[in-house]
Amino acid sequence: MSDGSTTLTLIDSDAEVVYPKRLGQAIAMALSGAALTAILVLTAVHREEAFRDWSESAVTLGFLTLVVGAVTLWIRWVQRYVRDYRDERLPLFRLDADGCEAALGRVAWRDVVGVVTILETTVGGEGSTWWLGLELQRRIRLQSAGSRYYTGKGFLADHPRLKDGRLDIPVWTKRSQTVATLQRFYHGPIDTTVRRHSP
Questions:
Q1: Residues 65 and 100 in one domain
Q2: CA 87 from chain center: how many Å?
Q3: Domain closes at, from 69, 86, 103
Q4: Do residues 99 and 107 touch, judged by C-beta distance below 8 A?
Q5: Contact assessment for residue 167 and residue 134, using Cβ atoms and an 8 Å cutoff
Q6: What does the pLDDT look like over 168-192, one tens digit per residue?
Q7: What's the pTM value of the predicted model, to 2 decimals?
Q8: N or C terminus: which one in the chain shows less Cβ crowding within 10 Å?
Q9: Half-sphere exposure of 122 (CA within 13 A, CB side)
Q10: What is the DSSP letter of 66?
């Protein structure tokens, strides 16, 4: 099954459009905010002890710099998330009779020599992501996308990517359903044997 990074598809006889899931990003933002708050509280509780021995001023200054940097980065991330969420909802990618299109560009089915199934595990094996890899002919360059696509990046969002001569798209529902949907548009070979990769 998919890891839930994508959701909501618009399905008709001509195309399937897959949209990103925003709930995961909101949860990640909330959790990171809680962790940051805990750091700030601990800093406030131990501030007297931290400043008592000025012989360790360099360590104290480094710690405070780290805290300020973390707060700044988190605020910028929240601002970006809010701007992105308020934008019109843009799709992650689109499949149609002519090819696959995403923010990276568009590839025609005639330039896809095969499709492979990839299970990518995170470092430590604590998480995994399913991908369908569109294997491209050599020296093929993606065409410019004809529409706007979602390019915002969150901790729990998987985006189409170019890797090892493939255009990888995240599996957006059960693998069997995803493959069946792909077969509506792509009539070349699809290898459902799972290839296990590490990032």
A1: no
A2: 18
A3: 86
A4: yes
A5: yes
A6: 999 988 999 999 999 999 999 999 8
A7: 0.66
A8: C
A9: 8
A10: H
